[in-house]
Structure formats: C-alpha cells, structure tokens
Amino acid sequence: MATNDGVRRTLTRLLAGLGVASAVALLVRPQQVVDRLSPGFPASRLWLVPALGGRLLVQHGAVLAVPDRRLVRLGSAVDLLHAASMVPFVASPHYGRAARVSGALAAAYAAAVLAVAPRSDDTVVRPAREHAAAVGA
User: Fold this and answer.
1) What is the spatial distance between Cα 2 and Cα 81, in angstroms, rounded to a whole number?
2) Cα(76)–Cα(57) distance, rounded to whole angstroms?
3) How far is it, in rounded angstroms, from Cα 126 to Cα 116?
4) d(Cα 12, Cα 114) in Å, to the nearest integer?
5) pLDDT of the chain, 137 residues: tens digit per residue
6) Which of these, 122, 95, 113, 109, lies nearest to 6 by C-alpha position?
7) How far apart are CA 29 and CA 46, in angstroms?
8) What is the pTM of this model?
C-alpha cells in the first residue's frame, strides 16, 4: 500500500505542479491569457484573472508541498465550488467563454486529482512493518 500511495502522491504532485504553472501564467500574463482564451472578456474585470491566479497558487502550492488526502479533498471542493460559481455566467456574451473555460478546467482538475489522490493521510512513506506498527495492526 505504501508504494501505491507513493505513486499516488507523485501523480498528485504532478497535477499540483500543473496548477502552479497555470497560476503563475494568470498572475504574470493575465492579458495574454485572456486574449488567447476569452477575447471578449471585459478589460475592466481583468483584475479577476490575477486574483484567480493567486488563489490557485496558494491551493496548488499547498498540495504540491503536502499531497495528503485531506488537503486534496479540500482543494477539490474549492475547485468544484469555483466551477459551480461559473454556471450563471456561461451564457453571458462577455463572460461566457471565460466562465466555460474556467469552470471546465476547475471541474476537470477536481475530478483528476481526486482520482489519483493518496488513499491514506500518512504523508510519510514507511516500510510496511513500520506502518503496521504505527496503526496498531
């Protein structure tokens, strides 16, 4: 089980690394991201892009540092709330494309990271004998 959780932690960290990279893009190049993904997005609301980038940086950075199940579940819940908050805007002529892209990516990330998340909260991978002694088996 420790090996399986070790692989799962590695996959979780890889996904979190992708999340950190996307966060940095939103923080450093918000206009270029908007121009590429949602050209109709109002310039007066561009501040939302780096704000989202900051939230993603904190969330994915935390999972990258500590890829345990509880933190992954919390991050996934936040992503699903974000995806749900995009639903009222999907038909908007100004915000629709951004809402669809952002909501879909958040929902996809939440599902993917939950699928590969570690099955235990034990963040230290130990030999099976030590693990059994630690849990009282």
Assistant:
1) 31
2) 14
3) 19
4) 9
5) 456 888 999 999 999 999 999 999 999 999 999 999 999 999 999 999 999 999 999 999 999 999 989 999 999 999 999 999 999 999 999 999 999 999 999 999 999 999 999 887 655 544 555 555 555 65
6) 122
7) 11
8) 0.82
